[in-house]
Amino acid sequence: MFVLQGEVEKNFSAFKKGYLRVVGDNAIVNLLNASELRLLVEGRGDVPIRLLDLKAKAFYMGFNANDRVIEDFW
Predict the structure, then answer these.
(1) Which of 73, 32, 34, 36 is closest to 55 using CA atoms?
(2) Cα separation of 37 and 63, whole Å?
(3) pTM of the entire structure?
(4) The domain containing residue 17 runs over which residues?
(5) Rounded to whole angstroms, how far apart are CA atoms 38 and 65?
(6) pLDDT, tens digit, for every residue of 7-66?
(7) Total count of domains within the chain
(8) For the chain, what is the radius of gyration of the CA atoms?
(9) What is the biggest distance separating any 2 CA atoms in the chain, rounded to whole angstroms?
(10) Which of 7, 8, 6, 36 is nearest to 23 (CA)?
(11) What pLDDT is stored for residue 7 in this prediction?
(12) Alpha-carbon separation of residue 73 from 20, 36, 54, 59, 67 (angstroms)
């Protein structure tokens, strides 16, 4: 358990920081279940998202576009 927790702690901490930055202490979000939160984040899928448009507008904090993790993401 410790190994798993230690391995994901850095990544989860970054996710948590970003999540709290967007959501903050919004009490309504705390009332949502997982599928409702997913719907808020992803939408219904009725608006086409062009990945290359997103990539062109992306900026990276602590990374650059040539880092392996960024290339793997896209």
Answers:
(1) 73
(2) 27
(3) 0.38
(4) 2-73
(5) 27
(6) 778 888 888 888 778 777 776 777 888 888 788 777 787 877 787 888 888 888 888 899
(7) 1
(8) 16
(9) 41
(10) 36
(11) 73
(12) 22, 24, 12, 13, 10
**Which pLDDT tens digit goes with each residue over 3-16?**
666 777 888 888 88
Torsion, CA 15, CA 70, CA 42, CA 14, rounded to 10: 0
Secondary-structure breakdown of the chain: helix, strand, coil percentages, each rounded to the nearest 5 = 65, 0, 35
Q: Check if the beta carbon of residue 73 is closer than 8 Å to that of residue 67.
A: no
Residue type, 2: F
Integer Cα distance of 42 and 40 in angstroms = 6
Quote the CA–CA distance of 58 and 69 in Å, as a whole number: 14
